[in-house]
Structure formats: structure tokens, C-alpha cells
Amino acid sequence: MGRSAPTHIPYNNLTTQGAPINMLDLSLVIAAYLLGSISSAIIVCRLMGLADPRTQGSNNPGATNVLRIAGKKAAAITLLGDSLKGFLPVFACHLLDRSDLVFALVGGAAFLGHLYPIFFGFKGGKGVATALGVQFGWSWTIGAAVGASWLFMAKVANISSLAALISMSLAPFYIWLLWPAPELIVVQILITLLLIWRHRSNIRKLLKGDEGPISTSSTD
Questions:
Q1: Spans of all domains in the chain
Q2: Is the pLDDT confidence value at 105 over 60?
Q3: Is 13:97 a contact under the CB 8 Å cutoff?
Q4: Please, how many CA atoms are within 13 Å of residue 123, restricted to the half-sphere of its CB?
């Protein structure tokens, strides 16, 4: 039995609730992981003749480290690429009329691909941009809420890692308010916990008061 998605969800999505996972769903999850495994930072730096971000700065293949070692242009391209690989597979779920479970699994798979990319020895970035892309893919209102929280904290504290940790910690609450599907909430909680784990070195620096401002901090 199908039902209309909540009116606040964009893209005119109709989800099929209670349907078992089929081959199309499995293919979407696998494709999301593979797309997430494409490292925008490494590819951008190679194309621009720059150093491998895994060997420079914080050694993380993400937009913040690219900003540090290569400048704003390369970082902006990396940020866009990392966001799109989270957004596009989830947006495909809207177009293909998938269930809430598939939305959640596809978003989680794209995020895991960024953290543990099969094409780059399972050593990826910290996942902030890709997670935000997933959230915008689920619903632009969710993405906007998380993004606004990041911008507010970045403006107040000028510390990228702190802004990421707070905004992503609020994400399950925003999903509960805006699209209260248990599958999405559970996957977002897992994304948040993984993101916190990947930022453990940043958390230690924050506790010591050693974390640098956005221009030098190491969240990716």
C-alpha cells in the first residue's frame, strides 16, 4: 500500500511503505556506496596538479583540508563534489518512488562510501559535506535546517569542527520534526555517531582549547 510523503517533503515523492527490498533497491544502495567512494578531494587535486590531500595538512581527503593546501577554488569544487555524491543517489529515490527504508539505506551507503571508499583503500574523509548532501536529498527543509545550524555555529565560534559536530548532532531532531520516518532517524543517528568518531582528534583539541579557526581547522 502506498502513501503520499509528508507535504513538507519536496520532489512530489510517493513512497511504497512495507514493500520488501528488491533488486532495484539493492542496486541503488550499491550505487550510492560506489558513488560515495569517489574521492572528490583526491580527483580535484590530481586534475589541478596539486599534492595528494592524504599526504598534506590534516591528511584527510576533504574540502577543509583542500582549502588549507590548495585554496578556495579547489576546496569549492571538492565541497560540491562531496555534497553531490550524497545528494544524487538519494534524489534518485524520489524519482523512483522508493520506500523510507530505501531512502535511509541509500543515504547511509553514500555516507559510508565517503568514509570508507573502496577505490582508495577504505581511507576517506570525515563526511560532513556528504552527510549534508544526503540530508538535502532526503528533504531540502532538513538540509536547510542542518546547514543553517552549521552556518550559525561557524559564525559564532569560527571553528569548523565544532559547527559540524553541533549541526549533525541536531540532525536527528530536525528529521523527527520534518520527516519523522523511524528509518531515517535511525540512520541519521548512526551517521552522527560515525561523524563524531571521525572527529575524535578534533574533539580532543577542542577540549584542550587547541582547535584552530575555520581557515586552519581539520574537519572534512
A1: 21-208
A2: yes
A3: yes
A4: 9
